[in-house]
Write a structure and sequence with these properties.
By secondary structure, the chain is mainly alpha-helical. The chain has one domain: Transcription Regulator spoIIAA (2-Layer Sandwich). Helices cover 48% and strands 10% of the residues. The longest helix is centred in the middle third of the chain and has 16 residues. It starts with a helix and ends in a 15-residue tail after the last helix. This is NTP-binding protein.
Length: 83
C-alpha cells in the first residue's frame, strides 16, 4: 500500500466523526498494511464511541487476517459490498 500514511490520517478523521463503513469491494489486492490501518481506525472509532465495519474484503486480505488469527476481530458489513 503505497499511500498508507495518507490513508491513516484520513481514516482516523472519519472514524472520529461517526460510524465508519470501509468498503473493499473495488480493491483487488491488499497487504498487512491494510489490516494495520483497519485496526487503527477501529481503535480510534471505539475511543470516540463509534463503530467501524468492513465489507468486500479481497480474498488475500481475508487469508492474511485468518493466518494472523484476527479475522474474527474485523466487524463485517456485507451490505457495504457493491454489486
Amino acid at each position: 500500500m503505497a499511500n498508507a500514511a495518507g490513508c491513516l490520517a484520513e481514516g482516523r478523521a472519519a472514524a472520529q466523526e461517526g460510524d465508519l463503513v470501509v468498503d473493499f469491494s473495488q480493491v483487488r489486492e491488499a497487504d498487512s498494511a491494510a489490516l494495520a490501518l483497519l485496526f487503527d481506525w477501529q481503535r480510534v472509532a471505539a475511543a470516540a464511541g463509534h463503530d467501524l465495519r468492513v465489507g468486500g474484503l479481497p480474498p488475500g486480505l481475508e487469508s492474511l487476517a485468518a493466518l494472523y488469527g484476527v479475522a474474527e476481530l474485523l466487524p463485517r458489513d456485507e451490505a457495504a459490498v457493491s454489486t
